[in-house]
Amino acid sequence: MTTAPTHQDTVRAQPAPAPVVADALPGPAAPTEPVGPRFTALLTTTGLANLGDGIVQMGAPLVALTLTRSPGQIALLSAAAWLPWLVLGLVGGVVVDRTDRRVAQVVALGARAALLGVGAWLALTDALSMPALVVLVLLYGVTEVFADLAQTALVPDVVPRSRLQAANGRLIAVQQVTNTFVGGPVAGGLLALGTGWVLGLPAGLAVIAVLLLLRGVPGRYRAERTQESKPVADVREGLRYVVHHPVLRPFVIGGGVMNMASTAYFSVFVLWVVGPGSRMEMRAEHFPLVTAVLAVGAVVGSLLTETLVERLPELAVMYGCWLACVPLMVVPLVAPTVPALVAAMFVLGLTNTIGNTISQSLRQRIVPRALLGRTTGAGRTIGYGLMPIGALLGGLVAEHAGLPALFVGATVLTALAVAYPLLTVHRGTVAAAEAANTDHAATDHTTTDHTTTDGTATDGHDEPA
Q1: What whole-number distance in Å separates Cα of residue 404 and Cα of residue 433?
Q2: Across all residues in the chain, what is the average pLDDT?
Q3: Is residue 105 within 8 Å of residue 147, measured between CB atoms?
Q4: 449 pLDDT higher than 70
Q5: Upper half-sphere CA count for residue 214 (Cβ side, 13 Å)
Q6: Dihedrals phi, psi of 112, to nearest 5 degrees
Q7: Sign (positive/negative) of CA torsion 173, 178, 179, 185?
Q8: What percent of the chain has pLDDT over 70?
């Protein structure tokens, strides 16, 4: 389950990753509205949860290396992490749209804490095996589906539309910093203390995140529904919206294929870098320090995004960031040295964050709020659902053709994937999609009101963050 750059909402989003039509592509001009204390609490919660993610994501494959050196089994661990998105992404989106989004995130994080507590107990009693580790990672991925979808859908409810670029940039930067810059090295240190620490500390962080979310983001955040419908109908509506949308469809398909290629590449990347017999023969405890520069690039990218979008066409910046992945993926193959790897990781973190921030903000602008959970779930079912397939293919190709062949194939596939949205989505396509979003008048607010199940406002103006 190696940390790999992803297109978060594949529109990443996303990950990765709002202005009215006139501002759609150049970006908001000198936004002044505060993001507010509720967003600050949500941001802190995200940081705590993602610090736990970083420890688990970096710690799990390092623990696996003590159990096996098989590329297939290492890739299986990565596949288990992303499989829940393929199976539960649509269901998760429906749940988020039909329930209080804050409650959904609280329940998911609480379940994560309990799961990791069980994993820590297994480790402390020397009962943790490779099959148990795979199951643990699989169930952890289930909690991530619901927590991630709920957090993404909450953002427009607590942040003014004019500050979505800034808010999403901060979220993605915090995710990268805590996930990679902090979580990765911490995982290496905890592994030296024992596997139980690698799982136990993230469990405690999840508990703290739950308490902060309950206290710092008060109110009820359930999308107002104009009419009742069955869950199956909601799933179909989300899928139909994505499949027929002129912007979402190319981004979801292109981003999904890019994610599949990236996961195939990074699911076994640790075998190229770490341990005796690897190309770089790096010590396991040093690997998290090298990949931590991804987070440094992410911070720089988050600071640059608003300025770049103000001065340059938004799509041009995003496509440029996506295209930058192609030469960066070749660097470890042609220059397997620590300085070259560090430089590539820095640029990859920077471009990934900028691209994710733009795409996530764009999706939040063009999709009606009542559909946000379902469309995000549908998009991530495709975008993230292809990742376990990529992980399994990566392990298979590496096992039979070798790591260099896998890296070259993944790079070529990434270049082809970028071409689809690049050739089909232009300025006019995005402007028309924003104009078609009937939420604009209702959500172009100077306060960040949110609604209860009966549609009444439960909060007034936010104070400056």
Answers
A1: 41
A2: 80
A3: yes
A4: no
A5: 10
A6: -60, -45
A7: positive
A8: 85
Residues facing 274 on adjacent strands: 282
Q: Which residues contact 336 (CB under 8 A, 6 or more apart)?
A: 272, 279, 280
**Distances, alpha carbon 249 to alpha carbons 9, 10, 429, in Å:** 12, 9, 12
Task: Give the dihedral sign, CA 134/135/136/139.
Answer: positive
- φ, ψ for residue 5, nearest 5 deg: -65, 135
What mean pLDDT comes out for the span 73-101? 84
Q: How many Å apart are CA 123 and CA 129, to the nearest integer?
A: 9
Contact assessment for residue 198 and residue 190, using Cβ atoms and an 8 Å cutoff? yes
For the domain made up of 21-218+230-442, give the CATH fold.
Answer: Growth Hormone; Chain: A; (1.20.1250)
Beta carbons of 404 and 81 less than 8 angstroms apart: no
pLDDT winner (highest mean) among 71-75, 107-111, 125-129, 228-232: 107-111
pLDDT in tens, 378-392: 887 887 778 888 888
271 neighbors 278 (Cβ within 8 angstroms): yes
Q: How far is residue 133's CA from residue 289's CA, in Å, rounded to a whole number?
A: 24
455: left (phi over 0), alpha (psi -120 to 50) or beta: left
- pLDDT for position 138: 94
Segment 112-116 shows an average pLDDT of 94
β-pair partners for 282: 274
pLDDT score recorded for residue 22: 33
Residue type, 272: W
